[in-house]
């Protein structure tokens, strides 16, 4: 049972308050465990009660994450985490809305939604567990796979096409908070997710989340990551952010960009009653 805050009489929330009884079916050592831990730590740190938060996801290993939390969840269809999350936020603006999933889900079948979610700038946070592979369907190349990755039987000579660049795409399309994290330290990742949730508008956190089953070489990410995109403070100017990305090797961690474009506000609700709206669509 949670302790009680002496000043507010509200329960003091802990990360464990956000973890459901459902045991994750991820492979032991999968990076997604760390992301789950970071999300629960972030929500606890921000003091957001479970009934005031939602996680929407698509399909894939990482998209199972809503079931592993105690917040509201919507495990939707492939590539559709962002439209679902947008709809939830517009209908229930008081909720803290997260969308979560993998690189295949978000940047391939969901790529169109990703671009338009960035430009629409609804206030929500998109956490992409990027392992550059389709893990759930046994290791095909994904949009972020390197062109010379030859371990998949489906692409024995490598995909041969340039990898999708999520941060460049997000910056081009209008995302207002763009960051990259790594799964090695859930506390550091939780801090990044806290910043993303606090920032008004559409926030992207790309998390380098190793798939130890189909990309075991990703264990070496810990030797490649480095901090800050070369700068201790995030860029607030898009040109500066693009310049930093031109020097990015894909392993810079931290907040790349913080913008200040207005958050999307839905049009006022129509004044017609539900009965009047129904009458307009009635078949004569
Ligand atoms: Fe994680 Fe890869 Fe296993 Fe999927 S297949 S649970 S991404 S380690």
Rg (C-alpha, Å):
20 Å
Count of distinct structural domains: 1
Low-pLDDT residue intervals, each spanning 5 or more residues:
none
The number of E-state strands comes to 8
| Chemical compounds bound to the protein | iron/sulfur cluster
Q: So what's the overall shape?
A: globular
Number of helices: 8
The SSE string, one letter per element, is: HEEHEHHEHEHEEHEH
Largest sheet: 8 strands, mixed
Give the name of the CATH superfamily. Thiamin diphosphate (ThDP)-binding fold, Pyr/PP domains
GO molecular function, one term: thiamine pyrophosphate binding
InterPro entries: 2-oxoacid:Fd_oxidoreductase (IPR051457), OFOB (IPR011896), THDP-binding (IPR029061), TPP_enzyme_TPP-bd (IPR011766)
Keywords: Oxidoreductase
Protein name: 2-oxoglutarate ferredoxin oxidoreductase subunit beta
Structure, explained:
The protein has 284 residues and is an alpha/beta fold. 28% of the residues lie in helices and 16% in strands. It is built from eight helices and eight strands; from the N terminus they run αββαβααβαβαββαβα. It has an eight-stranded mixed β-sheet, sandwiched between helices. Helix 4 (111-120) crosses helix 5. Bound molecules: iron/sulfur cluster (SF4). Iron/sulfur cluster binds at residues 26-27, 30, 32, 61, 131, 135-136, 211-214. Keywords: Oxidoreductase.
Provide a compact summary of the structure:
This protein is an alpha/beta fold.
List the helices and strands and how they pair.
Elements: H1 32-46, E1 53-57, E2 72-75, H2 81-91, E3 96-102, H3 103-109, H4 111-120, E4 124-130, H5 166-173, E5 177-182, H6 186-198, E6 202-208, E7 226-227, H7 238-246, E8 252-258, H8 274-280
Parallel strand pairs: 1-2, 1-3, 3-4, 4-6, 5-6, 7-8
Antiparallel strand pairs: 5-8
This protein binds iron/sulfur cluster.
Iron/sulfur cluster (SF4) binds near residues 135, 136, 211 and 213.
